[in-house]
Amino acid sequence: MTTQGASHAPHPTIEPTAEIDTTLRSQARTWNHWLGGMHSFAVDREAGNKFAVTYPGLLERVRTTRHFLGRTVRYLARDVGIRQFLDVGSGLPTAGNTHEIAQQVAPGSRVVYADNDPQTVLYARQLLGSIPAGAVSYHEASLHEPEAVLAAAKETLDLSRPVALVLSGILGHVPDDDEARAIVRELLAALPSGSYLMSHDICDTEADWRDIQSRHNRIAPLAYHLRSPAQIAGFFEGLELVEPGVVALTSWRPDPGGRYSPEWAALVADLVGGVGRKS
């Protein structure tokens, strides 16, 4: 599904349809609630509020990753001139997401979102269909199936021209490190020279969060696996890193004036990521 046009007005609230099950919590809608968005239902908000209380530091982590997405996409569109983005495991394309940021810089930017949750895809397509956009499409495709992701991308993107591959906090859902690196390699192999990888995840350096993540994984339908900083940096193997490299997200080209207090930065120091260019 692709929509045409260009606008950056606030996203309207979408009423549920018969296809969207409002009795089942959606991870994507819960994230939207944590970010202060309006695209969630009671089941999502109830679970999200419970998680936020149970897991101290959760909201700061969610919001720090969104800030990082904004800075990196803005850098890629404004400073590098990237006009095509492939955002895999994206969740809901709501305020402050890839297409909105890229099109604020360059209205003609083309963006493909891919997610493996059918409910998220249904809801996302309603959102995208309710607003004009430059060239944005949303597809049901799994990170574990790079060929399917690339096939979907080709419907909107020209893969002979540079693309920014966005893997925002998604590789932690791949338990095997070798498989995760193979997925990244296969996706990047299909993209031409001058393409970029933006990726981040939570590393295993904070004992408190290791315990929180372990407890959450025992009950969560979709586990998230922490990696060492070296393993996260390994996803950028063979790429030319954009300064300052693979670092704590709060240290990657922070906005002028500084968004983060020392306390906030210390709390989310285990969020690590970067941007790399394919030669």
What does this structure look like?
The protein has 279 residues and is of the alpha/beta class. 39% of the residues lie in helices and 15% in strands. Strands 1, 2, 3, 4, 5, 6, 7, 8 and 9 form a 9-stranded mixed beta sheet that branches. α1 packs across α2 and α3 runs parallel beside α4. The radius of gyration is 18 Å and the shape is globular. The N terminus is likely disordered.
Task: Detail the topology: elements first, then pairings.
Elements: E1 2-4, H1 27-34, H2 42-54, H3 58-80, E2 84-88, H4 98-105, E3 110-115, H5 118-129, E4 135-140, H6 146-153, E5 164-168, H7 177-189, E6 196-202, H8 207-219, H9 229-234, E7 240-241, E8 247-248, H10 262-267, E9 271-277
Parallel strand pairs: 2-3, 2-5, 3-4, 5-6
Antiparallel strand pairs: 1-4, 6-9, 7-9, 8-9
Rg measurement, Å: 18 Å
- Mean pLDDT over all positions: 82
Q: Given the helix and strand composition, which structural class is it?
A: alpha/beta
| β-sheet strand percentage | 15-25%
Short description:
The chain has 279 residues and is of the alpha/beta class.
